[in-house]
Specification:
Low-confidence stretches: none
Organism: Streptomyces vastus
Pfam family, one: TetR_N
CATH class of the largest domain: Mainly Alpha
Largest sheet: none
CATH architecture of the largest domain: Orthogonal Bundle
Keywords: DNA-binding, Transcription, Transcription regulation
Shape: elongated
Helix content: over 70%
Protein name: HTH tetR-type domain-containing protein
Radius of gyration: 19 Å
Strand content: under 5%
Number of strands: 0
InterPro entries: Homeodomain-like_sf (IPR009057), HTH-type_TetR-like_transc_reg (IPR050109), HTH_TetR (IPR001647)
Number of domains: 2
């Protein structure tokens, strides 16, 4: 009985988080009741899982960042050459960012748990940038902190390309990963 209840509670939480992402993407000021309705649950059930809107936003932030970490680790970045790893990580991260656009592009709650996860994401990224530099993909004197910031900016720009809603093919994570990596490594200058 305890296991079934726990599984049911986990399903409810997942449904609430997914519904909240969709509802808040449409209306950042939406109510808990609107989230409950979108999740197909009662308001009481939502409040049982999340005491208030702030708690829900905090859970969204933690969940989305954990999914980013899972996507990075799923790419197994240490098991391939840096260029292959960078492409896999980028494509996986873009998939998550596409699913959690509201949460990952807005100033959601930055709790200690979310901050710790963000630190872990940064560590993974810096490790990959270090490998890329050691393997000659990045210049030996490249500022890796700046490179990380540019990479994050490219990820955001790729996921928010104008007109992407009208052309779903423009949101293909593998194609966008290629674009991001090509821009990161070669910029917009002519190829030599």
């Amino acid at each position: 009985m305890g296991r079934a209840l726990r599984a049911d509670a986990e399903r409810s939480v997942r449904a609430i988080l997914e519904a909240a992402e969709q509802v808040f993407a449409q209306d950042a000021g939406a109510s808990m009741e609107q989230v409950a309705e979108a999740a197909g649950l009662t308001r009481i059930t939502v409040h049982r899982r999340f005491a208030n809107r702030q708690a829900l936003l905090e859970a969204l932030a933690v969940s989305a960042k954990q999914q980013l970490i899972d996507a990075i680790e799923e790419a197994r970045p240490d098991a391939a050459p840096a260029l292959v790893a960078l492409h896999r990580v980028t494509a996986n991260v873009l998939r998550v960012k596409n699913t959690w656009r509201f949460t990952l592009s807005h100033a959601t709650a930055h709790t200690p748990a979310a901050a710790a996860l963000w630190g872990e994401i940064n560590t993974h990224t810096v490790d990959l940038m270090n490998r890329a530099q050691r393997e000659g993909l990045l210049a030996p004197d490249a500022d890796l902190e700046w490179t990380r910031q540019v990479y994050y900016a490219l990820l955001s720009e790729a996921i928010n390309r104008p007109g992407a809603e009208q052309d779903p093919a423009a949101q293909d994570p593998d194609a966008l990963a290629t674009l991001v990596i090509d821009t990161l490594l070669h910029g917009a200058g002519p190829r030599g």
